[in-house]
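2.7 Reproducibility. Because tokenized structures are sensitive to small changes in the input, we list the exact sequence used for 3-methyl-2-oxobutanoate hydroxymethyltransferase, including any N-terminal residues retained from the expression construct. No trimming or masking was applied before prediction.
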Amino acid sequence: PAKVRIRHLQDAKERGRPFSMLTSYDQFSAQVFEAAGIDVLLVGDSVGTTVLGHESTTATTHQDMVAFTGAVSRSVHRPLIVADLAFGTYQTGPADAVRHGVELVRAGAEMVKLEGGQAFAPHVRTLVDSGIPVMGHLGFTPQSVNALSGHRVQGRDQAGADRLAEDALALQEAGVSAIVLELVPAAVSARITEVLSIPTIGIGAGPHCDGQVLVWQDMAGLSGFEGRFVKRFANLRAELQRAAAEYREEVGSRTYPAAEHSFE
Ligand code: KIV
Ligand code: NA
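Resulting structure tokens (single pass, no recycling of outputs):
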């Protein structure tokens, strides 16, 4: 199958065919998702909380993003690879956004994602003018978890919904190629998806977005995270625990390694 590029996401929206994005941070998950036909791999700053053991994505560094972006980009050919700009690498201004965006592209990202609305239109414009495609991220934006007083659905009231729609239009105007909508009421993301000419990608944002995204360890039941918006398509935590416990038992009973695992 052909390499996924920005225009394919745009085509998907125009044809009303939803596309899928999953986070990925390493070789084997990336290869599995490519084989499964996932269109977009997001090297999210969620790597900080899913892999590195931090409490918040505000702890994820640029160096983390460069390392994990490299791992994913070296491992697959077909999916579009998007990497998050880490907290603190773009909030300080458009020039810093470009400097860090360049390094993510050098590591293998084909698009970079940043969080925020109108206030970040100049950053988006400068990145796009530099030849770096940008994905926006609105609604609940995890790097602002403290300012937002925790993980909460955004845009529940009319004023909040209007502000989200204005932010989405401002990002589109500034040149983003797509926008993630996180923890947004389904009716609000439906309205934004309708108004925008570029694709929306939902996470906890209902069924009307042009694409969907989930953190892979949540989707596959490895993290044990339980959120209303997450569906567990597998129970990897239980399966991996079973395998590890069986291995431990077989080592203890000298069942493993058997003759066939040993060299003459
Ligand atoms: O870092 C991440 O995993 C994300 C998605 C949840 C959209 O930004
Ligand atoms: Na992120």
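Residues 236-264 form one domain.
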